[in-house]
Amino acid sequence: MPLPAYLTTAEAAEYLRLKERKVYDLVSQGVIPCVRVTGKLLFPRQRIDLWLMNHLEGDDASSSPTPPVLAGSQDPLLEWAVKESGAELALLCQGSGDGVQRLIGGRAMLAGMHIWHVESERYNDPGTLGLSGMRDLVVIRWARRQQGLLVAAGNPHRIERIEDIARPGIRLAHRQPDAGVSHLLQGLLTRHRIDEKQLTWAAHPSLSEDDLALAIRQGEADIGVGIEAAARRQGLGFIPLQQEHFDLAMRRRYYFEPAIQALLAFAASERFVQRAEALGGYDIRELGRVLYNA
């Protein structure tokens, strides 16, 4: 029988040939990649495999060149800047967790991420994400973004606060489990003591910020958690919840690649600043700040 995509602590211990106590120790040290869903630890099996490869084989295990790919979470401002800057980066935005996996596995040059860690209430901690084993990791700030509740234009259901997502008949748009906003949603449910069993989920997950906003605009859902820029692009109502950090992770040697230098140079232009203001919900005053340098 094939193993599930997400392992329990007991399954992860058996998979790694370790005792459960040792797995808990690795979690507390921020060494092994995991997510916490409604108080329960889950271990993405694919990320566990990549984590093992990275630690056992070292950073130079693969002789294949890394493709010029920007993976991870979709960000409207970043997506626009890549195209306008001529950076020649391919976009493969399938969620923050997927971007981390591709970066570790050498299948992406950089990853955009906005993963909130509930226990520490911090964003994008390399140790918790399983990135601490990369000896040349660099994380830089892209932007602070406003996260909130996206509702239909005119707010016909009179949504006012996060607890309203549990009202009968309210359909909740949602993202894939390893997307950054899924981590945020789980944290909000825990913080506000909202039982998942009370929620009515949309029929299908949305695979990007824009897809989630579009699902609400087209009537497939009534509410969702997402960024202000996506709400504006689709003409939706927006109720602010908290500001988040959207960061870019890469190996140090890639920071000096022409593609990334072109992107960062363009991000310093007045045209870029004007675009950020027009999209809404962005604070770019710290853009380019080095947050982590292994």
Task: Give the secondary structure arrangement, pairings included.
Layout: E1 6-7, H1 9-16, H2 20-28, E2 35-37, E3 40-44, H3 45-57, E4 69-72, H4 76-85, E5 90-92, H5 96-104, E6 110-113, E7 116-117, E8 122-123, E9 137-151, E10 171-172, H6 180-191, E11 200-201, H7 209-217, E12 223-227, H8 228-233, E13 237-251, H9 252-255, H10 258-266, H11 270-279, E14 282-283, E15 290-293
Parallel strand pairs: 4-5, 4-6, 10-11
Antiparallel strand pairs: 1-3, 2-3, 6-13, 7-8, 9-12, 9-13, 9-14, 9-15
Characterise this structure.
Strand 10, helix 6 (180-191) and strand 11 (200-201) form a beta-alpha-beta unit. Helix content is 34%, strand content 24%. The chain has helices at residues 9-16, 20-28, 45-57, 76-85, 96-104, 180-191, 209-217, 228-233, 252-255, 258-266, 270-279; strands at residues 6-7, 35-37, 40-44, 69-72, 90-92, 110-113, 116-117, 122-123, 137-151, 171-172, 200-201, 223-227, 237-251, 282-283, 290-293. Among the domains are: 1-63, Arc Repressor Mutant, subunit A; 147-243, D-Maltodextrin-Binding Protein, domain 2. The radius of gyration is 19 Å and the shape is globular. By secondary structure, it is of the alpha+beta class. Strands 4, 5, 6, 9, 12, 13, 14 and 15 form an 8-stranded mixed beta sheet that branches. The longest helix is centred in the N-terminal third of the chain and has 13 residues, at 45-57. Helix 1 (9-16) crosses helix 2 and helix 4 packs across helix 10. The protein is built from 11 helices and 15 strands. Residues 57-63 have low confidence and may be disordered.
